[in-house]
């Protein structure tokens, strides 16, 4: 699929929106304005943006504890997201879910999930629903390299393969499951080779190259839409910060940290837009200014949102 400049700019806007939101969340957490844990997507923006560029509202995603990037790329409301991080009434979960539990079923976001590997069976079920209802929809499951070692991964992929479900399992291999390096947890170089055991395609790409991610996922998603079954897409990347905000990340070798920071997906794609796609610098800057204003407005929205009323404590706890 040949991408036109508006498509390229849209992907950059998504990436920049994620980067700006996450940078602001990091700042607010450091200032003790955001309660609870926060796991940021800084450095991995190209994956969510590249994959979700191929999705529509009929498609579903499941996310992880590091889920802000996925839900932003799928179209989540920044105001509701920021209010949820603040634990406020106007948040997606009325302030009860926090960073790890943002969902918007109406646009296909089946939820970020604090349970490692918890989204894999949910996405498989959503793919089954798409097939049974003949909607043409696809379910995309985002998860990390650590979750690829969970039983839920193998059970889900096996079922999706056996039933030829329209699913894409996206492994965001950032090199670490918390502080355990992938080299200590797996004896294969490319996690995508596990697809061979289930008779489905397995593809590994540079997860910091949004164009590579978009192209590979477009092919696998289209394949799923045509009824040809699931696939595994491994995107190799690096989280800039520790596992959670407050984690100094001392387990990450300094030379590798510096190497990966030099491959930051945002300046890399920005340079491509200006030098290869020949987009105007002013156009890109105007887009960036618009996004910064949106994120600043989301903070103002969150600050002004009321605290949840104590009488609502038991509301929306059970379906």
Describe the structure.
By secondary structure, this protein is an alpha/beta fold. It has a single domain (5-302), classed as Thiamin diphosphate (ThDP)-binding fold, Pyr/PP domains (Rossmann fold). It contains eleven helices and seven strands. Strand 2, helix 6 (151-162) and strand 3 (167-173) form a beta-alpha-beta unit. Helix 1 (5-30) packs antiparallel against helix 10 (265-275), helix 1 packs parallel to helix 11 and helix 5 (119-133) packs parallel to helix 6. 49% of the residues are buried. The model has no long low-confidence stretch (mean pLDDT 95). InterPro entries: DH_E1, PDH_E1_Alpha_Subunit, THDP-binding. Keywords: Oxidoreductase, Pyruvate, Thiamine pyrophosphate.
Brief descriptors of the model:
single chain, 319 residues, Rossmann fold, 11 helices, 7 strands, 43% helix
Helix/strand-derived category reads alpha/beta
Q: What percent of residues adopt helix (DSSP H or I)?
A: 40-55%
| Discrete helix count | 11
How far from one another are the termini?
A: 42 Å
CATH-defined superfamily = Thiamin diphosphate (ThDP)-binding fold, Pyr/PP domains
Q: Provide the gyration radius in Å.
A: 19 Å
CATH class: Alpha Beta
Biggest beta sheet summary = 5 strands, parallel
Mean pLDDT reading:
95
Q: What is the N-to-C order of secondary-structure elements (H for helix, E for strand)?
A: HHEHHHEHEEEHEHEHHH
Strand order of the largest sheet: 1-2-3-7-6
Oligomer: single chain
Form type? globular
Residue windows where pLDDT falls under 50 for at least 5 positions: none
Strand content: 5-15%
- What is the third-level CATH name, the topology? Rossmann fold
Protein name: Pyruvate dehydrogenase E1 component subunit alpha
Domain Dehydrogenase E1 component: 14-310
Pfam family, one: E1_dh
Cofactor: thiamine diphosphate
